[in-house]
Amino acid sequence: MKTIAVLGGGIGGLAASYYLCRSPQVIKVVLLESSSRFGGWLWSTRRSDGAVFEHGPRGVRPAGAVGHNTLNMVHDLGLSGEILPVASSHVASRNRFLYVNKQLHRMPSGLSGLLSTVPPFSRPLLLSVAMEILVKKSKKDDETIHSFVSRRLGKELADIAVDSLCRGVFAGDCRQLSVRSCFPLFYDAEQLRGSLMLGMLLGSGPRPVAPRGPLAQRSIKESWTQWSLRRGMESIPEAITERLHQSGRVRLHSAAPIQLEDGVVSADHIVSALPAKALASVLPPSCQPLIQQLQGISSVTVAVVNLEYAGNVLPVTGFGHLLPSSEDRGVLGVVYDSVPFPQHDSPHGETTRLTVMMGGAWFQEVFGDPDAVTEEGLLAGATEAVRRQLGVTSAPCWSHVSLQRDCIPQYYEGHYRRVESMRSFIRKNNLPLSLIGSSYDGVSVNDVIYNARRAVEDLTGNEV
Question: 244-266: b or e for each residue (b if 16 or more CB lie within 10 Å)?
């Protein structure tokens, strides 16, 4: 494994390059990124007055092996002092809202919230959970998230809570997304234990493993629910890029055309962190079966609108609110950024930072062709949503509109079969190719980093 080419300089490609540098078997890494910057969807605006705004992921969950793995990397990159943790006792952890029937409802939490009937639900959540143990196991090898939750926990929870959750996490429609690929823990719990609750209590098969470094241990001790960094999430790709430059083993090329025709990329192995359709467009014609499968993985476009208001304009305090598709198809949710991360606010006078997420699986239906929408139109839609849902009548004093095209892959029902088929084709034809990135095995920052590490370990045969 003398020379490895890594395609794509988002967090997946950067993480793969970082782990490849830790392997003594790899002599040279060539990282190719088609845009002018590294970091992909990890993208922060740092204003001259010290305020920070995120245009992609704004916080990372520390839980589980994949969360510990990311914290290990952050520690190794020297970013421990930059961490902004949010503990489970913090108001942003305790208060999360749903906007249903034109009202904000705090999501039930704690035993009292589970035992009593809390709007917008018509019965105590504990009742749905208790009845779930009696539901028979499905014989299907996959089904939609909505179908799975309706069957096991009832249609109301599927229509309101899970519909909203899938819009917040995947910007997607739970009536199309695969439970096996999007929530493998749920699927495995039913298959192994016959019940979600028993699966959660007793475990549901082998899970990823990662050592607990100093930051991971601290996150457990202090009971973090999420974390960010003082200068924003873009600090991670910046620190990795700096590390790669220092290693002397990595050549980084931005604004680089990516083509895989014979002789264009000279390497012993290729690690692709490109989106599925982008990889399909650069593979040679001999890979036609693989190209067809890659083209079948769709992604959705999300408008991310950052807003800043003078003073404290929030009627409630918490992390933010989500909306089910029955309430407003265009607005996926609003994050109250100033609550979990006040360190990112301007130090000059009190302000409120909000982020409105719009579109996703409903982008075309609500806003039309992404090529035809205007920033002014999206900004107007976002401020109107804040006015209607939070009662904020003042105009924002600062705003930023980003149209994140094809930013979140959609794992539709049967996605796992497609991914298995692609990897099987690669093995059978001995192709020197590894597939990583959010198109295949998880869309979160943690998943993408962990799967990059796993691919490098498979490739080199060593732990990195």
Answer: beeeebbebeeeeebebeeeebe
Q: Work out the angle at residue 34's Cα, subtended by the Cα atoms of residues 30 and 36, and round it to the nearest 5 degrees.
A: 105
Nearest Cα neighbor of 334 from 56, 70, 2, 99 is 99
Residue located via tokens 């809390």: 118
Q: Please write the tens of the pLDDT for every residue from 178-226.
A: 999 999 999 999 999 999 889 988 888 888 889 999 999 999 999 999 9
Residue-wise pLDDT tens digits, 302-320: 999 999 999 999 999 999 9
State the Cα–Cα distance between residues 203 and 167, nearest whole angstrom: 27
**Are the C-beta atoms of 100 and 120 separated by less than 8 Å?**
yes
Q: How far apart are the first and last CA of the chain?
A: 15
- What distance in Å separates the CA atoms of residue 406 and residue 303, rounded to the nearest whole number? 11
Q: What is the mean pLDDT of residues 59-70?
A: 97
